Amino acid sequence: MRDTRESRLLLVLLISIAFALITVDLRGGEQSPLDSARQGAASVIGPVQEGVAGAVDPVGEAVAAVRDSDERHSRIKELEQEIIELKRQAGSTDRNRARATELDKLLKTAGAGGYGVKPAEVIAIGATQGFSWTVTIDAGTEDGLKRDMTVLNGEGLVGRITTAGPSTSTVLLANDPDFTVGTRMEGSRELGFATGRGGNSMNVQLLNSKAKISEGDRLVTFGSHEEKPFVPGVPVGEVTEVKRKGGDLTKTLKVRPFVGFTQLDVVGVVVEPPREDPRDKVLKPDPKKPEPTPTVTVTKTPGAEEAGAEQPGAEAPEAEADQPGGAQ
């Protein structure tokens, strides 16, 4: 429509009519003459509004679903974190239980030998190929540790301290090729020197080439002067092979250590040696050797035998008294 004088007059007229209708409708209230017209318009526009609403609702539901999906995803992440934490706690509980068991075994071994020990935990392991077999423990000079102290666990000899720092120490393991310790065989007291061979094996050179040694025989540390670096009586291992070579001045034994060097956790450093050599007391009872059965011997004295021989004669008069002739 062009902006002319006639169009402006028409617009003013339409506005005036609209205001007049609004005034009549407001004054009439429920009895307004426009109520029927309004209801008719509602009946026409209502279905259109419902259709529009029906078309818009899926979009709203999709937006709500996306929002709920984000919330569920966040909750899933929270649950996953809770599961990880629970697994960590369970693993920590199992680890603490295992450490408690190791500590209990260590204290029993120390008590059997009369050793004063400082418990420590293995926190690092050294190179095992081309270098020395070593571990690092979380105790040092601040805990009273020094170089050349014996290290053991609940099974037996672990090694000796080579370097002691303020809070950590380095331990040379007994299976290291540069490790040597004096040994004594259980029972026979035969002396020798054990050296590491890496892995889980040691060699022992016995001083007596004619000593009678069998597979399964066990040995302990002989001890050093002033108990440094080794205290006596610490279990070392058991013989797995006897190498027999005629003419040798010594006898070579292959020994399996009691300690698993790849599974070290809790160890103890001997800070106080025993008052006396425990000999074989620290060794656990050998299941391969049954305990001897006690025997009881019964002896009879000559007097008792004669008294027993007279018993039949003493019963004879009673037998005669029972005879009819004896009653007469």
UniProtKB/TrEMBL annotation:
Residues 130-270 form the Rod shape-determining protein MreC beta-barrel core domain. Pfam families: MreC. Residues 275-328 are annotated as: Disordered. Residues 69-96 form a coiled coil. One of its GO terms (cellular component) is plasma membrane. Residues 275-291 have a biased composition (Basic and acidic residues). One of its GO terms (biological process) is regulation of cell shape. Keywords: Cell shape, Coiled coil. The keyword Coiled coil applies. Residues 294-328 have a biased composition (Low complexity). Belongs to the MreC family. Involved in formation and maintenance of cell shape. This is Cell shape-determining protein MreC.
